[in-house]
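Exam revision sheet. Question 4 asks you to relate a sequence to its structure. Input first:
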Amino acid sequence: MQKREQWTSKLGFILAAAGSAIGLGAIWKFPYETGANGGSVFILLFIISTLAIGLPILLAEFVIGRRGQADAVSGLKKQAPGKPWFLIGWSGLIFSFVILSFYSVVGGWILSYLGRSLLFQLSNLGDADFAELFGGIIGNPLEVILAQAAFMLLTIWIVQGGIKGGIERASKIMMPGLLIFLVILMVRSLTLDGAMEGVKFMFVPDWSFFNFKTALIALGQAFFSLSVGVAGMMTYASYLSKSENLSRSAVSVAGLNILISIMAGLIIFPAVFALGYTPDQGPGLVFIILPAIFDQLFMGGLLMIIFFVLMLFATLTSSISMLEIGVSIIVKNKFDRRVRVAWLYGLVIFLFGIPSALSFGIMSEPFMFGYTFFDFMDILTSRIGLPIGALFTALFAGYVLKKHEAETELPGQTVWFQVWRALVRYVAPVAIIVVFIQGIISIF
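Answer key, structure tokens:
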């Protein structure tokens, strides 16, 4: 039996954990939710929600994960022997499996766009042509399945290399690359004539959007963008040495998530306003409106390549964490099985994801409650699975872990420890229940 791996550095852990959080939620969903919900007020509520709700739950996963020093199921069994709290780990495996099955479909779309941009096939198209192109790509059965398979192969290849040789090494390349590409695109967007209207949209409050609905959407965005609720952060923290400061790591991850979300907005909204579009374009903002914007800019073809490489990096850093959750639980302490388990488990996820890939073409008929298979899997996880997982994680950290047990993972932080414990015991559970109830209502 091999010894359990550990991160080689604190930076490697932070970049991997931040990469898990900074996926399509920051680069794709945050901009379109901001655009649809008033800009600056939504951003303010998102930041408050991230710090008051998301960060305490993130730190709870870190505490539980490092204390367990094992996969999510085994680690929880060690900390609460004879009790059913280990089901949090199995819940994480199930819902991360489902998430990755449809998340890989979107990853495939990004690969399709990246391939076309590398061949300069996205130039000189009008708005209607970009909309037609997007519909053509997601409705083509052969292309979406092959692209989904290619994305899963990339994900599996990274995870099968282990923590040091796979996930950490890839994160140390992709996360700095993501930041560099963000800066390049942000500078170009901010130098457009009329770009300041987009900046005003993001930072000058329109208080008419300050209402319960906006607050709830911002809370949901903050909650889900940190990748909590599926034991992913618990899994990553289990590979962390006892010498690392968990609070600083959690603040670093949450801070990077906020920073990159805002940077993504500073790429999109200045360009949207400068070129005469409206910000409330919805989910099509990235795949239809942005390519149309880049097409009008000097060296737009190169900018488009950079953008879709950025999207690929962001998506991959999240997908590898979701695959690692299940791989670590199945492998347990038999680490010589990692390669075989990663490939077989990844193959099963790919096969389960095929109906999601076909949900915009030959399987576009409603699957359940009027939703396609893709949409139903998304709703099942984001509105039911993740809130349940996060709720029980908060309850475990706040009520099952004894005070002195939690303090051993957060030594010398008396004031911050008291604040965190109060938030995770009282505030976070209430907020999660509100999001969960609203999510259930919205399904029907």
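Marking note for examiners. The radius of gyration is 21 Å.
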